[in-house]
Amino acid sequence: MKGETQTMSAEGTRTVHAKGNPLTLIGREVRPGDKAPTNVQVIKPDMTPFNLKEDAGKPRLYSVVPSLDTSVCNKQTVTFNKLLGELDGPVTAYAVSVDIPHAQKRFAEHYKVDHIKLVSDYRDVQFGESYGMLIKELRMLTRGVVVIDKNDTIAYMEIVPDTVNEPNYDKAMAALKDVMKK
Q: Is 177 an active-site residue?
């Protein structure tokens, strides 16, 4: 499970933690090497639906956060925005949360987020279920990063073991740079 850091309980249930408290992940379990789910609808900040299959065949990064209103999610999104802006060449990248689109739009404007697109999974949680990153108890996404290559294969995936911690930016960006070269 290259890059993946979720844990499994004795019963086989996938879990993450929030400040040490266990939470259950639900949805389809995907791993590096698997075909990425592409027929996934999310909502853009202007409240229009967007299907991620529109970007199939392109290298891309999904920065997944529980809520932009928390300091760690805020930092993760702003950090990836900065790192993506330093890349040579265009890249397709999304910050995915269950925040309502209007809040995402305000966040993007306030923090000048312009290298990563904000999309919401609030309506149907299709992203969370398709990538196995939905927290059952909270109906929120867990913290993580997914990098997908141009063949729509998951090249890197990290599910952060405790949602209060940040992802490994260096590994995620290295994986993204690698798939951009191919």
A: no
